[in-house]
Amino acid sequence: MQRELVEKISLTQLFILVSAFLFGSAIVVGIGGEAKQDSWIAVIVACLLSIIPVWFYTFLLSRIPEKNLFEIMEIVLGKVISKVFILLYILYFFYVSARVLRDFGELIVGDMLVNTPIEVISITFMLFVAYILYLGLEVLGRFSEIYAPYLMGSIFAIGILLLFSRELHVKNVMPILPEGIGPVIGTVFPELITFPFGELVAFMMILPYASKVRYAGKTTIFALIVSGLILAYSSFVQIATLGPEAKLRSKFPLLTATGEISLWDFIERVDLIIIFVVMFGILVKVSIFFYGGLKGLELVFNRPYRAFIYPMAMIIAFMSIIISKNFAEHISEGISMVPWIIHFPFQFGIPLLLFPFVLWKAKVLKSEGKKR
Amino acid sequence: MKAMKLLLPSLLLLGLLSGCWDTKELNDVAFVTGVAVEQGEDAKFKVTVGVANASQLNVQKSEGNTPSVTFSLEGNSISELLDKMNVGLTRELRFSHTRTLVIGEEVAREGISGFLDYLERSGQFRNNFTMLIAQNISAADILKTTFPIQKIPSLKVHNQSSTLFEQWGGAPDMKLSDFIAALTSRGRQPVAEALTIVGTPKQGQSVENNKKLEPESLITLVGLAVFKEDKLIGYLNLEETRNYVWTQDLIQTTLTVPCGEEKYIDVRILNSKSTIHANYDGETPNFQVEIVAESFLNGTQCKDNLEKIETYKKFEKDIEEMVETMILNTVTKVQEEYEVDIFGFGEVMRRQHYQRFEAVKDQWDEQFSKADIDITANIFLRRAGTSNKSFLTEDE
Amino acid sequence: MVTIAFVFILISSTLLSILLDMHLYNLSFFQTLHFSLTLDAGTRETIVFTALITGLFASFFLDYRMSKKESREKRS
């Protein structure tokens, strides 16, 4: 009765997914604010540094081809031990997607739809995500392909509109690096490298489904650099418009900056563009984390992942609310604990741990292949 | 089973309705165009809102009634009062189109950061409205003084000040966000536009005022209100305001420069740029303000021959001298009288000599008041309107 | 199976958030448990609780359907 799932995405789609994934919540919550007027430099530095882990992820995947992270774990660590790790990863993916969803909910409720319960936003959003993933990864890819031009277009348009509204003060960005590279490094580790760049670990679940796997790694790194630059550009626009203090003070700096656009008393109040951009980014981000988790469930519980979609979507909606009682808790959790306790082990710890095993197993498989 | 299959999607469709949670029909809301805050008689603040009467703005449907209604309440917090305005008004108020915030003099002298926080925090207010200080009059009267051409008072004031800024530079381009940025910055103190009413405020409060050729009362801009932190400490007049704006980002202005005894030339200044260089000379900071501008000659009362290069050179020199002394006088006045750095010289110092500024940033205003300021103007007189020689020029 | 996964993920993710909250608020485990799971009755958080219960029922239903399908396949 159910149609067969197409689980292939083209390289263009992969590129767009990676970039939308990186913009996702990073473009809303304003990253690297601690580096004051140099936060755009911090973003570039973090982006360049995170080429290393991303290259490492693709290297791991290339050792045992056409298998995703969880399948590799199963091959390398054996059925029982791998299950423990996979379950941990599932938890991680679900937890992060709940956090991302909460970011979005806070944006909508805090700024646009003040009377709407954040719970309803979470649930409707998850229903949408569930529907997309029910139709398969390819639908997500094609969906992003359609919307990506608008995303890129509006991000650039914002900078240009701000420039013409005479709100872009380059002097706000000066002085460059007055206290040396210290504060920049301080924000790169651990904040920027784990969020948003390190979260690309979720793509270890997607990369094997790219149509030309050989180029998937290169595409990801290319997308990483491009979106790193765009994030830096957006960060630059935010600082130049608002100044470092106001940027740090604002909950959603890009939104505040967009509010400054006013051209000929005609082009005004374009904040809604930002909400649209953010909605798309968050959608991709939640979907990919969710998909990663679902794939894990498929492996552990031995049922097609589509069966899990609706119940798990509801769990994520539930978690996004239960995670924190209020915005202050949400933010302080995100700054003080999540990078260290949650992000680091899953983004760098476990992959590094896997590394020697994967090398060894790859060798074994190769020699077995030769024997045959 | 079939019923179930129909029921489920229709239940899911209900989810779409959640988009209507915050819905408000246009005829349920009223747009606030201006907010005035002043000292209350019984409580901390008296807040007045000016609400647009949209039907009167339509040329065809207008019945000659008032284009804007005001209402005042007293209380201790702006936010509560704004939500409580329905004590006297019918519709839900929307603040996204607010264009002016008028602050009474007494409130400004006591400090305004208390309610600025609300305005910045609230998602409803855009940050791009004009901040105004009502000098010598009740702030609420600003929202009540009609004007025949731009019917809503608060929009009139907004247009007035932005046009003055663009045409002559007599108003600072100071939006709420700029004000807060100046407030938080260590190297700059905020300013705001000051305004008052000429005539009798009472007479202006009726549409009848619009029927007079010379309005009985009229809102006029008077210059600049100077702040120290969030407290008003004094005013600059219009001329000085223009000089202040010239050190920031002047668009264009007109100067009257003496060219002989009781004789003047009028010069239109365009395309002006000012760059500031900061330096430390031992313990005293010094600043070189460099002004480069192009200019046209609008008119002359002198007999000099405008076809000669020497005349242009002489005029250029006259203009430069005048600009230099004029701006220097304004800066010195602020240095001596108010001792606050409204020009943002501290920010320039921070940008160019970060370490030195960091060392003195807590006493920056003292540093500013002893700073040496040097103004160099470089004005190019390009052309002189559509005629060559003036008819005043006598042939030799 | 779906039900087991549902219950497992629900419990463990709640545990995760409780562990984080324990650190953040400096409370003991049971205090945090109580604190996080009371769900502020009467607030709009109940909406999401309802959604969760529909998820639970959906997983019952899915399990039932899958087991039926399996048994049918075995018979044939």
Automatic annotation (TrEMBL), chain A:
<comment type="similarity">
    <text>Belongs to the amino acid-polyamine-organocation (APC) superfamily. Spore germination protein (SGP) (TC 2.A.3.9) family.</text>
</comment>
<feature type="transmembrane region" description="Helical">
    <location>
        <begin position="272"/>
        <end position="293"/>
    </location>
</feature>
<dbReference type="GO" id="GO:0009847">
    <property type="term" value="P:spore germination"/>
</dbReference>
<keyword id="KW-1133">Transmembrane helix</keyword>
<dbReference type="InterPro" id="IPR004761">
    <property type="entry name" value="Spore_GerAB"/>
</dbReference>
<feature type="transmembrane region" description="Helical">
    <location>
        <begin position="184"/>
        <end position="209"/>
    </location>
</feature>
<keyword id="KW-0472">Membrane</keyword>
<protein>
    <submittedName>
        <fullName>Spore germination protein KB</fullName>
    </submittedName>
</protein>
<feature type="transmembrane region" description="Helical">
    <location>
        <begin position="39"/>
        <end position="60"/>
    </location>
</feature>
<feature type="transmembrane region" description="Helical">
    <location>
        <begin position="118"/>
        <end position="137"/>
    </location>
</feature>
<feature type="transmembrane region" description="Helical">
    <location>
        <begin position="305"/>
        <end position="328"/>
    </location>
</feature>
<keyword id="KW-0309">Germination</keyword>
<feature type="transmembrane region" description="Helical">
    <location>
        <begin position="221"/>
        <end position="243"/>
    </location>
</feature>
<feature type="transmembrane region" description="Helical">
    <location>
        <begin position="146"/>
        <end position="164"/>
    </location>
</feature>
<dbReference type="Pfam" id="PF03845">
    <property type="entry name" value="Spore_permease"/>
</dbReference>
TrEMBL record, chain B:
<dbReference type="Pfam" id="PF25198">
    <property type="entry name" value="Spore_GerAC_N"/>
</dbReference>
<feature type="signal peptide">
    <location>
        <begin position="1"/>
        <end position="23"/>
    </location>
</feature>
<dbReference type="InterPro" id="IPR008844">
    <property type="entry name" value="Spore_GerAC-like"/>
</dbReference>
<keyword id="KW-0732">Signal</keyword>
<dbReference type="InterPro" id="IPR057336">
    <property type="entry name" value="GerAC_N"/>
</dbReference>
<keyword id="KW-0449">Lipoprotein</keyword>
<keyword id="KW-0564">Palmitate</keyword>
<keyword id="KW-0309">Germination</keyword>
<dbReference type="InterPro" id="IPR038501">
    <property type="entry name" value="Spore_GerAC_C_sf"/>
</dbReference>
<dbReference type="GO" id="GO:0016020">
    <property type="term" value="C:membrane"/>
</dbReference>
<comment type="similarity">
    <text>Belongs to the GerABKC lipoprotein family.</text>
</comment>
<keyword id="KW-0472">Membrane</keyword>
<dbReference type="InterPro" id="IPR046953">
    <property type="entry name" value="Spore_GerAC-like_C"/>
</dbReference>
<dbReference type="GO" id="GO:0009847">
    <property type="term" value="P:spore germination"/>
</dbReference>
<feature type="domain" description="Spore germination protein N-terminal">
    <location>
        <begin position="22"/>
        <end position="196"/>
    </location>
</feature>
From TrEMBL, chain C:
<feature type="transmembrane region" description="Helical">
    <location>
        <begin position="47"/>
        <end position="66"/>
    </location>
</feature>
<keyword id="KW-1133">Transmembrane helix</keyword>
<keyword id="KW-0472">Membrane</keyword>
<protein>
    <submittedName>
        <fullName>Uncharacterized protein</fullName>
    </submittedName>
</protein>
<keyword id="KW-0812">Transmembrane</keyword>
<feature type="transmembrane region" description="Helical">
    <location>
        <begin position="7"/>
        <end position="27"/>
    </location>
</feature>
